[in-house]
Amino acid sequence: MANKALNFLSVYGYDLIWGSIAAFYVFTVPYTKVEESFNVQAIHDILFHRHHLDNYDHLEFPGVVPRTFIGALLVSILVSPIVLLMSFLHLPKIYGLIAARLALGCIILFTLRSFRMQVRDKFGHHVEAFFVILTSLQFHTLFYCTRTLPNILAMGAVNLAYGYWLKGRFQAALNCLIFATIIFRCDILLLLCPLGLELLLTKSISLWEAFKGCLRTALLCIGLTILVDSIMWKRTLWPEFEVLWFNSVLNRSSEWGTHSFHWYFTSALPRSLLAGYPLFVLGVLLDRRVLFYVLPVFSFVLLYSKLPHKELRFIISSVPIFNFSAAVAASRIYNNRRKRLWKFLYFTMLGLFLISLGSTTISFMASYENYPSGYALKYLHRIGCLTNSTDEYWVHIDPFSAMNGISRFCEKDSPWRYSKEEGIHLEEFRWRNFTYLINEHSNIDGFKCLFLVNGFSRAGVRLHLPFIEMSYEPKVYVHGNTNIEGIMHRNWPGCLLSFYSQ
């Protein structure tokens, strides 16, 4: 029995480490934000509305650009037996969201495992171990691997491409990137092109054979997404083509903010890689084989820097390769740690690991408090039921709240009813028949502020323990209709102090 346990840990130990950290993030921060909303709502609707497309959220709130249902369908298929059991046991729908996020995390971590195995086979066990350590000490990869962003769905296919790339199956790697580009994120084209060019220049692939293979894969993927998404959206479309047109041809992505050209290299990558950032540069210098793998991914980030609108999630697919390069450097430092110069590098590396752990802890603390409306609705469900009332409770959720923690998974059955109607002016609410409002405004005529929820504001440094100070401020207010007697006769926490204590 002991030998079986040891064998199991030797094979799956690293996966258990990653899975445990990712699951911890899911259970402690279950709510989602606007960037995840399409796939979250799509998974909810597939699981609970099934073939009744008219009830799907995306037809009422389509978003700026359409997205594919293929990722949501895959996750929904995996999690549907669990949701069926939950429905039989009458469990809240929020557990369905947790199950869906865990299923997605399993998919992404499985693809990351396939890449890690190739790292081990090609560069050794020490490099694999440091690859696991670096990824575990970073926040973003394991926090976001369970979040239903299109970037994360694409990352699964990109991870598989990295594994095939290291294995020498170059056509399979290109096929995975084509799948990610056409189905999930058209911007993966910026990774596909440098990688394909490098393979051609190094004569790793034949131009004609690669062209035939890529064309065949592209046509199959285009056919798949048009077939599935035209049914779900009730019109003929290829979602990622419309995204490409919106971002590249119309160049409207800048409407959501812009950053300087160097932002990915001076802000996004240092925050996502932490200790891995200086180490990945060192890895390229210490092992000439690494440059072959880093160069196309570095070019991907460089090309993406031309787009004015920048977010860390846009380049999160580059993190595994940079971590691989950093792991090569860390392994070399560890193996030579007894030599004089290398000993200094070794202790510096350990210091960087500690800094990474501290930074990840701070990032988690900030993220824990970054979904205020999810907590607001949770507490409203807990304390908002009125005694001796048979009426329905109509809750209006404003756009800010819908973007900061609330999804269909957070809703409950009768007597609770919900509205996300947009464009209602504050003075109009007094004439509407809402029981409660979850809103970013502290004062609304005709409503009493029942309680508020704080959210993360900023982190600061101070000269005494604890050296990091987390600041919070009111983000979401829950109001009750003053015309409802049951609300006015109850004692509420009020809005002088946050009901949810951080």
Automatic annotation (TrEMBL):
The chain crosses the membrane at residues 12-31, 69-88, 94-112, 148-166, 172-201, 213-233, 261-283, 290-307, 313-334, 346-368. This is Mannosyltransferase. Its EC number is 2.4.1.-. Pathway: Protein modification; protein glycosylation. Pfam families: Glyco_transf_22. The keyword Mitochondrion does not apply. One of its GO terms (cellular component) is endoplasmic reticulum membrane. It is an enzyme of class 2 (transferase). It comes from Tripterygium wilfordii. Keywords: Endoplasmic reticulum, Glycosyltransferase, Membrane, Transferase, Transmembrane, Transmembrane helix. Its main location: endoplasmic reticulum. GO terms for molecular function: dol-P-Man:Man(7)GlcNAc(2)-PP-Dol alpha-1,6-mannosyltransferase activity. It comes from the Eukaryota.
